[in-house]
Specification:
Elements (H helix, E strand, L loop, with lengths): L7 H20 L4 H24 L14 H6 L3 H12 L4
Helix pairs in contact: 1-2, 2-4
Length: 94
């Protein structure tokens, strides 16, 4: 979580709940279009925190930089657009 954002713990809890809500919305075909936009917005919203973690891992409380190599933090950044594509594909009407 970037230091310029307040309430780090609460923000993580809210984003986790948002993931669960999005997953539940995927279940029903009626709410799947909403789930698409919900989950895409969530992925966009958390991307800056992922970039911050890659750029400044020493500022991330609780991140063990001896166990998590810096390359892994950078390698996960391109996975965000891939996850967005996956959400788009998974929520298409067939």
């Amino acid at each position: 979580m970037p230091p310029y954002l307040p309430y780090h713990r609460e923000a993580v809890q809210v984003s986790g709940m948002a993931e669960i809500v999005g997953a539940l919305a995927l279940v029903s075909e009626r709410t799947r279009p909403l789930a698409r936009w919900w989950l895409l917005a969530l992925l966009v919203a958390v991307f800056p925190a992922n970039v911050h973690m890659a750029v400044s891992p020493e500022q991330v409380r609780g991140l063990d930089t001896k166990r998590v190599p810096r390359w892994a933090l950078w390698a996960r950044l391109p996975l965000q657009p891939a996850a967005m594509w996956w959400v788009w594909q998974a929520t298409r009407s067939h």
